[in-house]
Amino acid sequence: MKRAVVIGIGILVFGNIFSALYDVSVKWLSDDVNASTFLLVRQLSAVLMILPFWLRERAPRSNHIKLHLFRAHVGTSGALLLIMGLMSLPLATVSSLFYSAPLMIMMMGCLFLKEKMSGAQSVAGILGFVGILIILRPSEMNISGIAVLAGALTFAINQLALKKLPDTESPIVTLMLYNLFSVPIVVVFTIVQGVSGLSWQVLGLAIVSNAFLLVYQWLSVLAYRKAKASEVAIAEYTGLIFCVFFGWLWFDEWLDGLSWIGAGFIVLPSILLPWIFSGVSKRQVSSRIAEMHTH
Q1: 200: which residues sit within 8 A by CB, 6+ positions away?
Q2: Are 238 and 18 a contacting pair, CB within 8 Å?
Q3: How far is CA 204 from CA 19, 23, 252, in A?
Q4: Residues 152, 156, 158, 162: what is their CA dihedral angle, to the nearest 10 degrees?
Q5: Where are the domains of the chain?
Q6: For the chain, does the N or the C end have fewer beta carbons within 10 angstroms?
């Protein structure tokens, strides 16, 4: 394996520690804080944290305001559902369900963007759906699990919407407008759900949460610049391992046997099928994994 690829994978594995810590930060919230209150504080603090970078680039603007509004509303709704799931479910369960997003991106790309789906991708989609059913267990259907799955769906929609933005638009614009435009709808969520548990601790956790995410995104950029996405993207799945470890270390959480099987059905097809089906490009599948995290 090339040295650059090894370094890229190493950076991405290290970055996934911060990705998992981003989820952990929600678990650190006290029981009297609701999801919308935390999300409002997080979005406001994110705007303030991004503002210096936006001003340093001389406050760039966008010609795609409607698309940014759409992404902000859809993404924020999903973020609220994900936070609700994290507050109720083990970290590893949430992470396993959320890794269905690449499969959703693949299927929606086929339906709405007329992208062709290979045999391997079709099998991966079917196995992933089976894995979701195993984790959710229809006989023990949990509203929190459905909320996480809906959050993954909104994430997939948001990622596909990014394809409509030109490559020439600065990523800082995308980050700034996403967080800024999300504030009004989060205010609505907060009015409906009510302000609960607002404190300096919540503000601190929101800032820490945003910092974890920014560090992860920065390390991701470094990793994907070291090597091709198809060569390093497989390391993204280490995020599930870190979520399992942190859940055990700090919250005494652990996946049961069936959940491990379900997680395997979701994660393993994307890793193994490119090698099983000789006519499928590893780059084609790996790029979907990379797409999930690099925006």
Answers
A1: none
A2: no
A3: 18, 15, 24
A4: 150
A5: 3-294
A6: N
